[in-house]
Write a structure and sequence with these properties.
By secondary structure, the chain is α+β, with helices and mostly antiparallel strands. It is built from six helices and five strands. The chain has a single domain, classed as Winged helix-like DNA-binding domain superfamily/Winged helix DNA-binding domain (Arc Repressor Mutant, subunit A, Orthogonal Bundle). The strands form two sheets. Strands 4-3-5 form a three-stranded mixed sheet. The radius of gyration is 19 Å and the shape is globular. The two termini are about 25 Å apart. The structure holds zinc ion (2 copies). One zinc ion binds next to loops.
Length: about 180
Amino acid sequence: MSRAHQRESIERGLAGVQAAPAGAEPAGKPAPPGGLADPVSQAQARARAMIRGVGARLTGPRLRVLSELLRADQALTHLDLQRRVEDGAEAIDRVTLYRVLDWLADNGLAHRVAGPDRVFRFSAQSTETPHGHFRCVQCGRMYCLGASADLERSVLATLPDGFTEQRVEVTVSGLCADCAPAH
Ligand SMILES: [Zn+2]
Ligand SMILES: [Zn+2]
């Protein structure tokens, strides 16, 4: 289990504790309608809206995979995703997972990015505005960086006359916060 995943599990656990009835304490803010209080439900609600937003049928596997992508802090391989989707839930067929990921990417709900090992990672971060990626040379994790329209513009400005771009990919290699030596 990766450190990031452990962190998420811990956060999920904490969210569960916070959502527990407050006992004799005076009631604070009422829970939002539809059980949107915890990150898992929030991700599911977002995933549901995104899938319906492209006019597609809402299936269990689509919902499970996209929710997990939305909650991830890094781009995930098929294997990472399978572990996360199945964590405390029923198994997901590998072929189904591959199909769902291709479907999400084809419909613009997720994008692929190749890692240092040439294995594709998937992320649900929007690509409406271009963003670069960060590749950790130690743990091999891939992260989507913040969106920046200037990033693409400045790269394109360096193209010689007569060259046309098809796509711009900016990848930064280095050590992620977990792998960088502590200061
Ligand atoms: Zn790292
Ligand atoms: Zn990305």
